[in-house]
Amino acid sequence: MLISITHHKPKLIVPAIVTPRGTKHLSDMDDQGSLRFQIPIIMFYKYNSSMKGKDPAKFINDGLSKALVFYYPLAGRLIEGPNRKLMVNCNGEGILFVEADAHVELEKLGDSIKPPCPYLDLLLHNIPGSDGIIGCPLLLVQVTRFSCGGFAIGFRLNHTMMDAYGLNMFLNALSELIQGASAPTILPVWERDLLSARSSPCITCIHHEFDEQIESKIAWESMEDKLIQNSFFFGNKEMEAIRIQVSPNCETTKFELLVAFLWKCRTIALDLHPEEIVQLTYLINIRGKSLKFELPSGYYGNAFINPVAVSKAGLLCSNPLTYAVELIKKLKDHMNEEYIRSVTDLMVIKGRPKVTKSWNFIIADNRSAGFDEFDFGWGKPIFGGIPYAISHISFGVPVKNDKGEKGTLIAISLPPLAMKKFQEVVYEMTLKNVEGVDIISKM
Question: Is 214 left (phi over 0), alpha (psi -120 to 50) or beta?
């Protein structure tokens, strides 16, 4: 469906009062090479008669100005020091804000508001020169009003500044301040030195996530510019169809099970040589875990590790699904302080490398990020989350299907032929099984 959107002139929103000036260092976990990109979040809100006559753009604008008083580094600009070290110049320059009007009713967009959303370029308008990492605004916000009275809020965040948990904190603060609070319930904490390299950095663990085989890299890069996206919904019946394909004594979480299933289906779809090495990178939040050091509750920087499961393609495709599940369960063994310290030290020693993309399925669980919960006065959004797979990275987001059933939606990026095969494999391994076809032996 073609839609028309009028974008108003962008402006900068600065903190409501004068904030501290100076330079703040990001942590060595923040300024990994893999986090130097912009990450989008979008939320859609229906018309609410109790807010009739109130402009959501004005509420969001005013709320952002208040929120930046507490999160003032977001109003600054990144600079780069020796060894590619990132720092924030806290200069109060401001974040970008765009108002827009869509000449269509929100309801007309239907399920297209869910990943992969085809309207993202309109709902998060890229201001020329704003999407870099160094010297650019750290946050862009767009409020798009629909003709029915509903609206969308899009956020484009420089990922080096915070992760999903940190953005959740910021949006909670924004919601509270819009609705009359004088300060956020949880005050933000910088303290990025907690996740910075040791004074004598030393790589003490194996980090396959940064391995890069030249042949595999060339093969993947030849396909990367041809990727297309589709989303796949997994509700109770799909998950039950997947669960019966693993050993009864194999204890695993629902999401670990789903990740194992997707990794296997994706590898089958790519039709790789049996000896080709494939990887799965599963992003693990380190907050609230039983570690020797504790991050403050207000810490809003990046705080996750990305260990990988490694297998030969042939073994992954030919073994029962339990094989993939067990590989993923072992990733939790990396959840210790030494592994975290080793990662931050590696960044300093190896010049902040990127996570390998070659035959690597990277996935993050964003189901509990809360992007579908934020109420700015109009109620909860009808959808809130990351609107598509970002290149090779997939995100699990909570949604309801057209029957109102809760489940997880995953957007996957693959080349066209591999996508066709992936759709066939997923159907074979889930819906056909639900319909009574014995496909367990195929897994």
Answer: alpha
Copy the structure tokens of residue 205. 């663990």
What dihedral angle (degrees, nearest 10) is formed by the CA atoms of 231, 395, 313, 343? 170
Do 101 and 107 touch, CB atoms closer than 8 A?
no
Which pTM does this prediction carry?
0.91
**How far is Cα 257 from Cα 252, in angstroms, rounded to an integer?**
6
CA 347 – CA 160 distance, rounded (Å) = 14
Of the candidates 270, 273, 278, the one whose C-alpha atom is nearest the C-alpha of residue 418 is 270
CB-side neighbour CA atoms (13 Å) of 127: 21
187 near 298, Cβ under 8 Å? yes
Radius of gyration of the chain (CA): 22
Q: Which two tokens stand for residue 187?
A: 């005050």
Instruction: Indicate which residues carry an active-site annotation.
Output: 159, 375
Consecutive 10-residue runs of the chain (443 residues): their mean pLDDT? 92 97 96 92 95 95 98 98 94 97 95 92 93 96 97 96 95 95 96 94 91 72 83 93 89 92 96 93 83 85 92 96 94 85 94 88 89 93 91 87 88 93 92 48 32
